[in-house]
# Entry
Amino acid sequence: MKVLAIDTSANTASAAVMEDDLLLGEYILNHKKTHSQKIMPMIDALLTDLELTPQDIDIYAAAVGPGSFTGLRIGVATVKALAHAAQKPTVSVGTLEALAYNVPLTEHMIVPVIDARRENVYAAKYAWDGTLKEISAPKGITIEECIADCDDLPPAIFLGDGAAAHRGYIQNKLGARALFPHGAAMNLRASSVAAAAMDKAKRGDTQTYIEMNPRYIKKSQAEKDLERKEENK
# Structure
């Protein structure tokens, strides 16, 4: 089974192809957030280098959120279009879940943290028990609430751009109980989306391209502004 997965949910844009448990190729760019311009050329170059066509892919997958509202829309729309054209199923992978796949089979709790700006983050908790288990569901909270929620945990692995942005604060509050992976494992990457999608597909957790949608959790700033205008009328 071949999976093509992409992630455009934050600053990093990436695309990967995995066949069963073997990563065939992955392209990652962490340079300016111009995902709408970069993601399709990345996918095209990756497939060309692997001598594959879109029809050779069995499953199309994307990180569907939470994350950047614009980035999520770009990623989901791209995968929906590819799956529609190839008439193949899709798999939706939570962004925080994909981050947890960066540190497979660890004995520690995993706390993926994505920056949501203005001292806010998206966070969840996961643990490996043969398979990845969700301990607490993704939610949008302040970094203070996130760390207070982790105060009673044994040593836990923090990763993601939110963990990187607030590393000093996390270490100050949790001390040696806060663990951080090496740089590459801190970032979102399509190969982890592909690994999660492969596990989901094996369990039959697939969708049609029509059923795939972003998971925002929080309202966009535009939606909040519109609500304020309506309230002030």
Q: What stands out?
A: Strands lie at 2-7, 13-19, 22-29, 59-63, 90-93, 109-115, 120-129, 131-142, 156-159, 178-179. The chain has two domains: 2-95+188-229, 103-180. Residues 220-227 have pLDDT under 50 and may be disordered.
